[in-house]
Amino acid sequence: MRPLNLVPLIDLFLLLALFGLMLARFPEALSGGVAQERALRVELPRGEGFPGGGAVRVELDREGRLALNGKPVRDLPALEAALKALGLAGQPVRLEADAQVAHGRVVAVMEAVRRAGAERIQVAVRR
After folding, report:
1. Fewer CB within 10 Å: N-end or C-end of the chain?
2. Percentages helix, strand, coil for the chain, rounded to the nearest 5?
3. Gap between the Cα atoms of 71 and 83, Å rounded
4. Which residues contact 76 (CB under 8 A, 6 or more apart)?
5. Average pLDDT of span 3-28
6. pTM to 2 decimal places
7. What does R_g of the chain's alpha carbons equal in angstroms?
8. DSSP state of 29
C-alpha cells in the first residue's frame, strides 16, 4: 500500500490561510478592490462610525480646499453646482473632512450639499 502524499493538501491550506490574512489586513480589497482616487490629503477624525458606501464623495482638507469624487473644486458655489449636475437622486453623499478643519467650514459644506439636493450625508471617521 502506497503512503498518502499530504504535501499538496498542506500547500493548499497554507495558501488559503495566506489569502485570508491578506483580506483581513486590507479591508478595501473586500469593498471593490480599487483604491479611490484622492485629490486632497485628509486626516479623518477618530470616531465610532460604521463603513459607508456613499457613491458621491466630498473631501475637505485642513486648508479648506474642496474636492468632489477626486477632482478639485474651486469653492462652495462650484461644489453646489457640480453636485446639482450629478443629480443625487437618493444617493448618499460622503463627507470626508480633515480633523483640523473648523466646525463652521464643515457646516457650510454640509449646507451646500443639502442645497444641492442631497437627502443623506455620511460623515466619514477613522476607527
Report:
1. N
2. 35, 15, 45
3. 12
4. 66, 108, 109, 112
5. 84
6. 0.62
7. 21
8. G
C-alpha cell at 112: 451646500
> What is the CB-side half-sphere exposure of residue 102 using CA atoms within 13 A?
6
Contact partners, residue 8, CB within 8 Å, separation at least 6: none
CA-wise closest residue to 60 among 36, 84, 42: 42
Strands (E) across the chain are located at 56-60, 66-68, 71-73, 93-97, 121-123
Residue 79 CA to residue 21 CA, distance in Å, equals 40
Residue 6 neighbours by CB distance under 10 Å: 8
Share of the chain above pLDDT 90, in %: 28
Residue 92 near residue 57, CB atoms below 8 Å: no
Find cell 477632482 and name the residue: 71
SS3 25: helix
Per-domain residue ranges of the chain: 56-123
Q: Which residues contact 17 (CB under 8 A, 6 or more apart)?
A: none
